[in-house]
Amino acid sequence: MSKQPTILDVAKKCGFSKSTVSLVLQNSTEIPESTKAEVFKAMEELGYRRNRFARSLRTRRSHAVGIIVQDLLNPFYIEIVQHVEQLLRKHGYDLIVTSSNTDPELELPVIERLVGLQVDGLIVSTMDYERVAPRLKEIQEQGTQCVIAGPAYPGIPFDAATIDDADAMREAMEHLFALGHRDIGFIWGAPTFQSIGVRFEVFRTTLERAGLSVRNEWVMHCGFRLRDGYDAAKSLLSRAERPSAVFALNDMLAMATIRAARDLGLSVPGDVSVVGVDNVELGSFFCPSLTTIASPITAYAEALAVMTLAGIERTDAVTPDTLCEPLRKGRKPTGARRERVVLRAGLVVRESTGEKA
Amino acid sequence: MSKQPTILDVAKKCGFSKSTVSLVLQNSTEIPESTKAEVFKAMEELGYRRNRFARSLRTRRSHAVGIIVQDLLNPFYIEIVQHVEQLLRKHGYDLIVTSSNTDPELELPVIERLVGLQVDGLIVSTMDYERVAPRLKEIQEQGTQCVIAGPAYPGIPFDAATIDDADAMREAMEHLFALGHRDIGFIWGAPTFQSIGVRFEVFRTTLERAGLSVRNEWVMHCGFRLRDGYDAAKSLLSRAERPSAVFALNDMLAMATIRAARDLGLSVPGDVSVVGVDNVELGSFFCPSLTTIASPITAYAEALAVMTLAGIERTDAVTPDTLCEPLRKGRKPTGARRERVVLRAGLVVRESTGEKA
DNA sequence: GATGCTTTCTGTATCGTTCCAGTAAGGGGG
DNA sequence: CCCCCTTACTGGAACGATACAGAAAGCATC
Predict the structure, then answer these.
(1) pLDDT-based confidence at residue B192 (cuts at 50, 70, 90)
(2) Paired residues of B96 in beta bridges
(3) How far is C-alpha B308 from the geometric centre of its chain's CA atoms?
């Protein structure tokens, strides 16, 4: 277990001072190529590896970004995470992935864990904005860029990327109406989650505009896990009067709903039509495949990554090695002004919706 | 953006020296409770947070463990990750989750990233053991505990946890034989992945013991993604002569296979029976639900976590604050002797297998 | 009252970087 | 020849914690 070489060892080996080696490491323009080559050669020969702790201690930058999502078992979030990770890595940042596991109580503890890891940026997808916001604000004031992934009030003090699926929701409702459905149920997760509220509002207003109204006994609250969706759907669909179509808050819940219908001897879409949200890949392989609301995941992830990086670089006028030219361009240091990106979702019609029997 | 307080600030505030404050932070037994209380109070009032970089620089410990899995879109790995994470956190370690995304070429780069983060331990699920082993050995020699998650040759120089599904495979084959199946196909992922080789050997020998033999045109090689499985299954099942049952290397591939069968107008299990591996939760909600080989995920994750922690603590006779009593107990510092945990899998019969038509 | 042993606490060196002020060498201009 | 500027490099002080040797006080022992 031999000791790792340090820049001092490298310096001795190549005959320069440790300051010079450090400058080479930072890719400083003050160092001529010939010197860099010699230093790199020495590093190579010694198997030198930069010590991240020392660097971070000195620079107060970890070059890591944390993301907290609601449920890693939902492929939707995995896809986002993977895209964000790729983009961040291109700019020299690592992504640390965490999840609250659909438990609102865990959100703050998980955020604390990431703060403990001293990330430079934080991407937060929360189920309970009101609860985490005060702490996030503190964190942001301490110099850590915070970005909200998900619905955001107009005036919030964070950069945010939002998927606006109101139009897609309306489109989905029109789609169901066109197929003859009038009796539509709604299966949703924890009521605190803001975007759900938005979706439910669209659900209500669209129904009302069509001369219908929400039937409360067809609105099921449940958790976000498959089991929760299954139980909720089963109890919804075994009612004496049951809806002919069901809106599920995400594709996982939609699949569970279909399974529940099948277990009750109902066919999908013959007896019940089901619409999901997220367009996870598995939904197109499910039998029947899911009609769902598709979000522009790549663009969403990109927005999150870019805002995070921009925020980190902005608050950081000091260290030149963290500078990312492509990001700097076109961005004035707006200071308190917050960025807001809104992306539109669309409807994908597949097998799980059909004409009312 | 005020500066974070340091132990020096805390020391000044409560009138002790920074050494004392540090000892309190390390929960040293040398400090009386009364003093600890005073110090904690000062910390509280200042909003002190321990600086991880400084600590890690000094102690050469990051209190972080890295895990690299093959595919985060496969819930099997997510479940493992979640369990491992919980256990590690109980002992004060963070888990950093990464994935090679089923690309063997990415395994080494991802490992390098984790090394760059200076994790104390590394849990590796590799698709190509031969390729990563030399590097892992180096890493281990530098003092980072490496644990292999997955198949492992008897003499390998790493701790390892393995799921032995040979018996379950045989059981599954017997199950298919009992249902009248003689023509069985095999859909597998990248051929380098060691456990697949094991499974295929069991497949072959079981067939041969039943007086049958492997038909090469029914053995499909494909990647691990849903799309790959779908394409492979479609081409397999559209052969003039097709198998009446198909073994898929994991549940994702099994679901894709079922979808492919359906798209070819074949019913499952009417025309084709399908067996998967992993027992992911979604498999029981799929229509038809999956017959699959179930691994003891919790025990597996626990084995991985415990071996990782034990290895970290073992190589680390110095710092008392990393000591974990429950782990130390019953473990002698065996030095070079490597731990090996083997867990047995079992068959879960559900709807996707049935009598041969 | 000198000695030794705890218990409780402290001063200082150290971890491996980066930052900053500054130096030495070389060249050009007056 | 002196001055100034640029280029290439360097020494030493941080960063915020832990490690270690040792000090001071209290008490028991002989």
Answers:
(1) low
(2) B66
(3) 12
Provide, in whole angstroms, the distance separating residue A295's CA from nucleotide D25's C1': 70
- Strands A94-99 and A219-221, by their bridges, are unpaired
Residue A2 predicted with pLDDT over 60: no
* Partners of residue A148 on adjacent β-strands: A124, A160
Our measurement of CA B25 to C1' D25, in angstroms, reads 24
Contact A82, A76 (CB under 8 A): no
In this predicted structure, the answer to whether residue A319 has a pLDDT above a threshold of 70 is no
Interchain contact, A73 vs B52, CB within 8 Å: no
* Beta strands A346-348; A291-294: pairing state: antiparallel
How distant, in Å, are the alpha carbons of A112, A344, B104, B127, B293 from that of B197?
Answer: 43, 46, 16, 11, 16
Least Cα distance to B314 among B303, B302, B327, B304 occurs for B327
Q: What's chain A's average pLDDT? A: 90
Q: The tokens of A90 are what? A: 């291109």
In the block, which residue shows the tokens 């620079």? A59
Query: Per residue in B128-162, pLDDT tens?
Result: 899 999 999 999 998 899 999 988 777 889 999 99
pLDDT tens digits along B82-113: 999 999 999 999 999 999 999 999 999 999 99
Nearest to B259 among A72, A101, A285 (CB): A285
Instruction: State CA A176 to chain mean position distance.
Output: 29
Please report which residue ranges of A122-165 form alpha helices under DSSP H: 129-141
Q: Return d(Cα A334, Cα B41) in angstroms, integer.
A: 39
Alpha carbon separation from B143 to A126, B118, B165 (Å, rounded):
38, 11, 32
Alpha helices in B148-270 (DSSP H): 166-178, 194-209, 226-237, 251-263
Please, are residues A353 and A175 in contact by the beta-carbon 8 Å criterion? yes
Q: Is B27 exposed, middle or buried (0-12, 13-18, 19+ CB in 10 A)?
A: exposed
Q: How far is CA A154 from the centre of its chain?
A: 19
Ordered DSSP codes for A332-353: ---TT---EEEEE-EEE--TT-
- The three-class DSSP label of residue A275 is strand
Tokens representing B171 are 């059981």
Find the range with the poorest average confidence among A250-259, A274-283, A300-309, B336-345: B336-345
Q: Scanning the structure block, which residue is given the tokens 């799929």?
A: B286
| Residue A141 neighbours by CB distance under 10 Å | 12
Contact flag A255-B142 (C-beta cutoff 8 Å): no
pLDDT digits (tens, 9 = 90+) for B3-60: 789 999 999 999 999 999 999 999 999 899 999 999 999 999 999 999 999 999 999 9
* 3-state DSSP of B6-44: CHHHHHHHHCCCHHHHHHHHCCCCCCCHHHHHHHHHHHH
Hey, what are B158's tokens? Answer: 């790493």
> Looking at the C1' of nucleotide D10, which residue has the nearest alpha carbon?
A17
Nearest Cα to Cα of residue B218 among B240, B197, B193, B187: B187
